[in-house]
Automatic annotation (TrEMBL):
The lineage of its organism: Bacteria, Bacillati, Bacillota, Bacilli, Bacillales. SMART domains: AAA, PAS. This is Transcriptional regulator. Pfam families: AAA_lid_14 (PF25601), PAS (PF00989), Sigma54_activat (PF00158). GO terms for molecular function: ATP binding; DNA binding. The keyword Aminoacyl-tRNA synthetase does not apply. It comes from Tumebacillus flagellatus. Gene3D superfamilies: 1.10.8.60, P-loop containing nucleotide triphosphate hydrolases, PAS domain, Winged helix-like DNA-binding domain superfamily/Winged helix DNA-binding domain. The keyword Transmembrane helix does not apply.
């Protein structure tokens, strides 16, 4: 008996080859195989003699000649190559898939199989190309799928998945074996091959499930780490994400919400609108359950398909609290104000009219130039103007040019980028102008700004933008400028030490603060105010009152304040008598009279008078020595303690001597002694006095020349 024979009749050669290799794998050489397909003539002898005719589809069977003996024919049931299915797993639900085949029934058959295998979330459209056909519905196709018929796919479709030719199903193989009475010794190979694909697919799926799990866990921790409520719904409105912050804000548990329709849990969010319109909304205020939320809604669209909506929200009261905390922090940085117009004490005509002018200036946004002697309250006025202006909620950033070291001034004022110089902080640093954005920058002692800085300042004031040191981008700054000085800028312009163009930029709205001599009627009002502030009662004898009224108060209100502190320490009891008054005040007659012109008077008050006082209380060399040390530290923007000063003195003094000298320098306004061991620093007056002292000391014989170098 010869080997049984099988004739394979298929539409295409490719399918015929697949069938042949399927049968060979199962039956080996125990079967004779003949093939016939579209391009091959049917051999009538083979047709009549073969034991079994295996056709690839009903369509092929129907197309055979009427004389054909259908009793020996078997239509192959076909499966898919499992491993190829992986390509379909990544397709989103609702993806429009054009299923391309060479006949409509194979396309429909393949689609039915895919649906049975679980791909029922995809939208399949069977397709067989017709000559000259131009289907409009092909434009909305996302992907074309085929079993080996790539050449039939319309050119307009870019994405393609080829699942390769479909092999013969295992049940058809068993039917053939039964019909031809064939041994099934190699069956295990075929089944092994078949199941190997299953196992591989299963393994890949398990991996991707694991990966998805890990990804989900990561996403969940990200969602829970943010300080915003996050809720996500799918396209049917079911809640899929409900993070910890959402639980906290809405006081709902995620467990009770996930999987439910959002309409049953949080209908107020009105997410159907987003599902319908596919348009997001950002930063909308929503009142819900006694809360005010700032809500943003974003539709999730993947490859053109709406997958759901993500909602993020914050409790507005918390946002406001954070804002308050930031404000508090800026207070601790010294960026807010202490004084408003109510804190400006005085009843005199001059202070009242100055206050009235200042209130008007505060209402505009122009640059203000405040002039006045030391201690008259220029900064107090600057703060009050800021507080009364529309920028009151922004920062008030004071910059003291007398204390600004020239080579650090630019980076202080305009900031720097990371790595712009040795010692530059990581991430760079914001400059004072940037800090003052939307607020006020107070350029104190502007007359002390070095010429190089004056030029940069002028540019910034003109352009209202800064560039950080080492940076290459301009940063726009919206600041109001208030400048102040106790110097005569007009004089400085004529000497070439102050830029005229900068002066006109600053002197838009001038404000002159009267000195204490011009408002003597305020003297005892201020004294009362300072005593009351310290909860202290002091009476002044008529003689003392007279002395105080006749004194010229070169250091103005600051000097008066310090004098009151002095009295509080030295007066035992509550009456201030002549013996309590320091010599410099009693000997006021020794000071230049008020009839001198203002600039000469200032000079005398600030330098000569102080020099006289110092000369009466010890050696000028010692004072020069102390101020030099303080000036050196100030250049490094550091304060220094008494012990360090003692150790650095070139002509030794005891600690108590240094203490007394520091106290006198402090009373004269030359230094500022920090509270609670913060160390001491030199003031602008101190720097001027030091200059004067050096000139004086240089005239003294037998001094080491290097000691008296000019102030740098
Ligand atoms: N009108 C006022 N009422 C109450 N206190 C005042 C008044 N003016 C100034 N002071 C007080 O006097 C001190 C000096 O004020 P401020 O620092 O504003 O003066 P300044 O003119 O800016 O001084 P400088 O020229 O030295 O910078 C401050 O402690 C302030 O509290």
């Amino acid at each position: 008996m010869g080997r049984p024979s099988v004739l394979l009749i298929t539409k295409s050669e490719k399918v015929s080859q697949t069938f042949e290799s399927n049968l060979r794998m199962f039956f080996g050489t125990n079967v004779q195989i003949f093939t016939a397909h579209e391009n091959l003539e049917l051999d009538s002898q083979i047709v009549s003699e073969c034991d079994l005719i295996l056709v690839s589809s009903h369509h092929v069977l129907e197309s055979l000649p009427k004389t054909f003996d259908q009793a020996r024919a078997l239509v192959a049931r076909r499966t898919v190559q499992m491993a190829k299915l992986e390509q379909l797993m990544g397709l989103a639900p609702g993806t429009r898939c054009l299923f391309v085949s060479n006949s409509m029934d194979t396309a429909v058959d393949a689609i039915q199989l895919l649906i049975r295998l679980g791909f029922d979330h995809l939208h399949f459209i069977p397709y067989v190309a017709q000559p000259g056909e131009n289907r409009a519905d092909l434009e909305r196709i996302d992907v074309a799928i085929t079993h080996g018929f790539r050449e039939l796919i319309p050119d307009t479709i870019e994405k393609l998945i080829d699942l390769d030719t479909r092999p013969i199903d295992l049940t058809t193989i068993f039917d053939i074996a039964r019909l031809l009475d064939l041994p099934m010794e190699k069956a295990h190979f075929y089944t092994a091959e078949f199941f190997r694909d299953f196992v591989r697919l299963g393994r890949n799926l398990a991996n991707s499930v694991n990966n998805e799990k890990q990804l989900n866990q990561k996403l969940e921790s990200v969602f829970n780490a943010v300080h915003e409520g996050i809720i996500s719904i799918d396209e049917c409105g079911r809640i899929t994400v409900f993070n910890e912050e959402a639980e906290k804000i809405l006081k709902l548990s995620a467990e009770n919400c996930i999987g439910k329709s959002y309409l049953d849990v949080i209908p107020e969010f009105k997410l159907n609108q987003i599902l319908q319109s596919r348009a997001g909304e950002s930063n909308q205020l929503l009142e819900i359950r006694n809360l005010v939320l700032l809500v943003s809604k974003v539709p999730v669209i993947v490859e053109g398909h709406l997958m759901g909506v993500v909602v993020t929200f914050q409790d507005v009261t918390i946002v406001q609290r954070i804002e308050q905390e930031i404000r508090k922090k800026s207070t601790s940085l010294g960026l807010t104000t202490k004084y408003s117009f109510e804190h400006i004490i005085g009843v005199s005509e001059s202070i009242n009219s100055t206050k009235q002018v200042a209130v008007k200036l505060a209402e505009s946004d122009y640059t203000v130039l405040i002039t006045g002697e030391n201690g008259t309250g220029k900064e107090v006025f600057a703060q009050a103007i800021h507080r009364h202006s529309s920028r009151r909620d922004g920062s008030f950033v004071p910059v003291n040019f007398a204390g600004l070291v020239e080579n650090l001034a630019e980076s202080e004022l305009f900031g720097y980028e990371e790595g712009s110089f040795t010692g530059a902080k990581k991430g760079g640093k914001m400059g004072l102008f940037e800090l003052a954005h939307n607020g006020t920058i107070f350029l104190d002692e502007i007359g002390d700004a070095p010429l190089s800085i004056q030029a940069t300042l002028l540019r910034v004031l003109q352009e209202r933008q800064v560039m950080r040191v080492g940076g290459n981008r301009v940063i726009p700054v919206n600041v109001r400028v208030i400048a102040a000085t106790n110097r005569n800028l007009a004089d400085m312009i004529s000497k070439g030490t102050f830029r005229e163009d900068l002066y006109y930029r600053l002197n838009v709205l001038p404000l002159n603060i009267p000195n204490l001599r011009e408002r003597r009627e305020d003297l005892f009002i201020l004294i009362d105010y300072f005593l009351h502030d310290k909860r202290k009662r002091l009476h002044f004898t008529p003689e003392v009152k007279n002395v105080l009224l006749n004194y010229n108060w070169p250091g103005n209100i600051r000097e008066l304040q310090n004098f009151m502190k002095y009295l509080m320490v030295i007066v035992e009891g509550d009456t201030v008598k002549r013996e309590h008054i320091p010599e410099r005040i009693l000997n006021c007659g020794a000071f230049p009279s008020h009839s001198l012109d203002p600039s000469a008077r200032r000079k005398a008050e600030e330098r000569e008078d102080i020099l006289h006082i110092l000369a009466r209380h010890g050696s000028l060399i010692d004072y020069e020595n102390i101020l030099s040390i303080l000036w050196d530290f100030s250049k490094r923007q550091e304060r220094v303690g008494r012990t360090v000063i003692c150790s650095l003195l070139s002509s030794p003094l005891s600690e108590s001597q240094v203490r007394n000298k520091l106290a006198l320098l402090n009373r004269c306004g030359c230094i500022s002694i920090g509270v609670k061991k913060q160390g001491t620093t030199i003031t602008a007056i101190g720097i001027q006095v030091l200059q004067k002292l050096r000139e004086e000391v240089e005239r003294l014989p037998n001094q080491a020349p290097s000691y008296f170098s000019p102030i740098r």
